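re: ur question from earlier - yeah i can do the single chain one, its not a big deal. heres the input i used so u can compare w yours
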Amino acid sequence: MELAPIPHNEAERQAVITRMRIATFDAEPELDRITSLAKRIFDVKSATVTVLDHDRQIFKSRANFEKLESSRDISFCGHAITRTGPMVINDARADQRFCDNPLVACNEPIIFYAGMPVHHHEGYPIGTLCIFDNKPREMSERDIDNLKDLAYLVEMVLLLRFAQFSQKRLLQNLDDAVRQSMMDPMTGLWNRRGLDEILDRELAPDGAPVPEPCGVLLCDIDHFKAVNDTHGHLIGDEVIISIAGMLKNHLRENDIIARVGGEEFVCVIPGMTRDMTPKIAQKLCDILRNTPIETSEGKTLDLTISIGATWLSPVMGPINRKAVFETADEALYSAKYSGRDRVVFNAEPLKDRTKGLLERH
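and the output i got, formated as C-alpha cells:
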C-alpha cells in the first residue's frame, strides 16, 4: 500500500485551513447541495467534500456516507490533493497503490474513486470533491468536466463563506476607536477607509489580480439635495438609513457595502458573473422605485437611485482600484445624465484603463 504523500507546501496549506476554520463538522447546507448533486449526476454510491487536516481527512459534507473523519495516510484524497487535475481510480483492486488499502480490503470497500482538488483562492489545495462506489466505474471526458465544474462551485462556496467570516473577524479584532474610524455611524456600513481595508483582506490588494469574478456597483440617490431642501436634513438622514437597509436586506451577508459619500454607496459583490452584475443592479433600482420610504413625520417619499456598474475578472490581471471606481463613476454619471433611475453597465474599457494606469505608476 502506498501512503498518501505530504505536499511540499504543507505548512502553508495548513495555515490556510486554520485561517478558514473549515476543519470542523459544522453543517454546510450549500456544500451538501453540491455533494447531493454530484451523487445524482454520476449515479454513484457516495460523494463528499473532504478537508485534509494534519493527520486526518474530515468529511465536511457527505451524501450517503456516515463517517465524519478517517486517517489521512490511507486516504485516496491525500493522493488527489497533490495533483493539478482529477484523480480517477476505475478499480482500486487492480491499482498497486490501493489494492491492499484498508478502505479497499473491507466489508464496504471503495472500488471506484474520482477526486478533484479544491483550492483556496491563494492556490493552496485544502481538500477534494470526490465521488466513490463499491463497484468499478469509468469516467468520460464529459464526466471529468462535470466534476471540475462542481469542484469549482465548492471553491466559490468556501470563498464566500470565508469572506463573510473575514468581515466579522475584522470587526471583532478592531478596538472601539479603530472600528469607529472604519464604520459609517449613521448606517452601520463600512466607510471609505473601511472599504479599502476589507477589499484588501477579502478581494485583493490594490495592484493584484482579483481571485474571482465580482461586480462593483456605485449607487447614488436621485435628487437627494431636493429631499434635504424640502424636508430637512433629519428626513434626509432617514432616507439614507432606509436605503442602506434596503441594500443590506437585498444583497448577501458576505457582499461588501459601504457609504462613501453623502448619498453615495459602493457594493462589491464577489462571485458574480458579467451578465448577472447589471441584473442585480437593476433589481436594486426596481426595489427602491416600488418601495416608498415612510418617514418619522408620517410622510411618504417616492425615491429612486441611479447605479453605475462594472465587473472584474481574474483574467484582467492586476487591478488598479482607482481605475475600477473611475469606470463605475463614469457609468454612474451616464445613468444620471440619461434620466436617472437606471443602470449603466461599463466593463469593456476597464482592462485597458487598468493596464495604462499601472504602466504610468
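Confidence is low (pLDDT under 50) at residues 353-361. not sure if urs matches, ping me
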